[in-house]
């Protein structure tokens, strides 16, 4: 929304949320999340045409266009638990809109939702016989964390799903007209509502599938002494495959991939498409396998025991340039190491507060240390779980000196210069490559 405000100074953008603390943080111009460039975009428009409020009812009444961006976590109860989206916040929002709208509104689904949700929203909005009419559009968001501002300012495409009726087309044009202020026309795709909803789930599923594919190959590389980076480069040079999203890793994390695939699986099952559901579920299973494999490798490499050993975890965010730790592989790996009675110390430049919260139930078994040089003090091993740039440029000679020997490096992101670390005396275990070891 901040990007719309900054690109369209003549449009008044009001962000409404029921959480007063969150709104207060935004209002102060200090966003409550870490995202490169976000602060600057917010500050360029705040109090000019960008406003934050807890008055949800009032902002519904005033708006011509309403973007619904409430969260839709995976259901934890009842039918579809563990797979389907929990739509309670979304439905509550539809009802708030219905209760407070006095004039025509275009309602835009921004949250990622199961296919055919817009139809359900339209049904709720027309459930009361009133003079007010609504148009519901689907406009899924494709930004990635860490590069959100760039993705919004220069998107590969903007997708708008609308009804084929005359009114639906008019509503689509209104929204397309806003994006057209900064997005080239040929990147604004107009589809039917269901194609738009499904495309969002499908795009995330295909991206995650690429990561699971390269991660599956990484295990085969380790068994055959092939190098996964060389394989990724060789296959990525085929233009039909492309180079992006072929970085082998400890596994994908984030709030979206797993949730959206499980949602897709649930949809397939709902329509009786079990073979298709099984296919997509395997993408998640391989991701879990990769995380488990990484944790198990740490234990087996360190002479089959990590009891009482200090292990430094470099990075807890699910990817670099964000403080977000949702579904982060680091969470799983830390828990497995604590299960094996290691002493885990977590360091991360942005995600330490979230890490503390996520691992609170593990008590003293995990400590948190902002300075990586202190985290490695007396450690038997360090493991890279997030590809923060800062870990590339550290003084690994000094790190080796501070650690117990033999010193182990487990690089879950293939981020570091493995040959150089080996020369310093480390035993190095990358993903999908032959380990470099003095043992
Ligand atoms: C993802 C999609 O990339 C966005 O297009 C989408 O809009 C967003 O989900 C969403 O649905 O909101 P995001 O989860 O922010 O974005 O981050 P990604 O860059 O996709 O990374 C996801 C995970 O995959 C991270 O843990 C990352 O480290 C991992 N990854 C990514 C790999 O392990 N290897 C790769 O080659 C690429």
Write structural notes for this entry.
The chain is α/β, with parallel strands linked by helices. The protein has 2 domains: 2-195, NAD(P)-binding Rossmann-like Domain (Rossmann fold), CATH 3.40.50; 302-429, Rossmann fold. The chain is built from 17 helices and 13 strands. It has helices at residues 2-7, 20-27, 38-45, 56-62, 88-100, 117-125, 148-153, 166-179, 193-224, 228-236, 257-270, 274-301, 329-339, 352-358, 372-375, 396-402, 418-423, and strands at 13-16, 50-53, 65-68, 105-109, 134-138, 158-161, 188-191, 310-314, 343-347, 366-368, 381-384, 408-411, 427-429. The chain has a 6-stranded parallel β-sheet with strand order 10-9-8-11-12-13. Strands 3-4-5 form a 3-stranded parallel β-sheet, sandwiched between helices. Strands 1-2 form a two-stranded parallel ribbon. Helix 12 packs across helix 13 (329-339). It is elongated and about 80 Å long. The protein starts with a helix and ends in a 10-residue tail after the last strand.
Tell me the total number of β-strands: 13
Q: Kindly report how far apart the N and C termini lie.
A: 55 Å
Q: Determine Rg (CA atoms, Å).
A: 24 Å
| Alpha-beta content class | alpha/beta
Strand order of the biggest β-sheet? 10-9-8-11-12-13
Look at the structure and give the CATH class of the largest domain.
Alpha Beta
CATH homologous superfamily grouping of the largest domain: NAD(P)-binding Rossmann-like Domain
């Amino acid at each position: 929304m901040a990007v719309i405000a900054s690109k369209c100074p003549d449009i008044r953008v009001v962000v409404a949320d029921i959480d007063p603390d969150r709104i207060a943080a935004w209002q102060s111009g200090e966003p409550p999340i870490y995202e490169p460039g976000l602060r600057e975009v917010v500050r360029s428009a705040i109090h000019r045409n960008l406003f934050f409020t807890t008055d949800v009812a009032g902002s519904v009444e005033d708006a011509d266009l309403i973007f619904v961006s409430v969260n839709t976590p995976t259901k934890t109860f009842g039918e579809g638990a563990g797979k389907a989206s929990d739509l309670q916040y979304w439905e509550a929002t539809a009802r708030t809109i219905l209760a407070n709208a006095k004039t025509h509104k275009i309602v835009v689904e921004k949250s990622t939702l199961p296919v055919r949700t817009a139809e359900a929203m339209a049904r709720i909005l027309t459930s009361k016989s009133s003079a007010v009419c609504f148009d519901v559009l689907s406009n899924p968001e494709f930004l990635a964390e860490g590069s959100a501002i760039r993705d919004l300012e220069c998107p590969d495409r903007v997708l708008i799903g609308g009804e084929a009726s005359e009114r639906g087309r008019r509503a689509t044009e209104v929204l397309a007209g806003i994006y057209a202020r900064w997005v080239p026309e040929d990147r604004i795709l107009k589809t039917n509502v269901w194609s738009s909803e499904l495309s969002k789930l499908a795009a995330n599923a295909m991206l995650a599938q690429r990561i699971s594919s390269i991660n599956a190959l990484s295990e085969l590389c380790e068994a055959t002494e092939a190098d996964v980076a060389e394989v990724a480069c060789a296959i990525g040079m085929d233009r039909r495959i492309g180079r992006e999203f072929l970085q082998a890793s400890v596994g994908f994390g984030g709030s979206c991939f797993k949730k959206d695939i499980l949602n897709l699986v649930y949809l397939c099952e709902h329509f009786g498409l079990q073979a298709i559901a099984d296919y997509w579920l395997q993408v998640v299973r391989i991701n879990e396998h990769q995380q488990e494999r990484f944790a198990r490798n740490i234990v087996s490499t360190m002479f089959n025991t990590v009891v009482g050993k200090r292990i430094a975890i470099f990075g807890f965010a699910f990817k670099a340039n964000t403080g977000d730790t949702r579904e982060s592989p680091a969470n799983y790996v830390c828990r497995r190491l604590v299960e094996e009675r290691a002493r885990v110390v977590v360091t991360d430049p942005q995600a330490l507060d979230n890490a503390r919260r996520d691992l609170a139930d593990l008590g003293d078994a995990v400590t948190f240390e902002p300075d990586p040089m202190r985290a490695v003090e007396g450690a038997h091993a360090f493991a890279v779980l997030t590809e923060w740039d800062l870990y590339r440029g550290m003084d690994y000679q000094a790190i080796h000196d501070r650690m117990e020997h033999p010193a182990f490096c487990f690089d879950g992101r293939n981020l570091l210069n493995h040959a150089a670390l080996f020369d310093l005396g480390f035993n190095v275990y990358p993903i999908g490559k032959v380990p470099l070891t003095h043992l």
